[in-house]
Amino acid sequence: MSANRIVRIVIGLALIAYGVYSHNTWFYLGVVPLLTGILNWCPLEMKMGTCDPASGCCATPAKEDSASCCTTPSASTLAPAPTPAKKENVAWMPSDKVKIEILGTGCKKCAKLEAAAKEAVQNLEGDYEVIKVENVEDIARYGVTATPALVVNGVVKSTGRVLKPEEIRAYLPKAA
Hints:
Layout: H1 3-22, H2 26-39, H3 43-48, E1 98-103, H4 108-121, E2 128-133, H5 136-141, E3 149-152, E4 155-159, H6 165-171
Parallel strand pairs: 1-2
Antiparallel strand pairs: 1-3, 3-4
């Protein structure tokens, strides 16, 4: 748990305790920091642009069986990212190597998609490179709103679901 969350929870509890002790309305003011600390959601930091989902602010930590890290981030939780002219040309330069990128913050679903991509290219002829992209700003540059996502040669092919190796192979360019 981050120090930021702990401070919000302690301040909230202190204001509630003071309100109960002194019989005044400070109780209601203490509910706000208490809830934002418990829920790990801080609208003030989102407005200021200091919210960093990767470090634990404004995002719940990923659990083993939870897909909470693979939810759709709202536009307000991400720092403004440059909008690419075309999704097809975001980060790919033509070459003989097929570049497969798995976009995700590191949850279980993201790891499953990465493993499926590696399995999909394991016995194929050609030069394939599977890359895991976990930086939220890099993911946002693709315009992806749900992870995990599959990108082949700079083109977003799938978002928000774990594909099977056969499905991934269907997205790969055919060998010449």
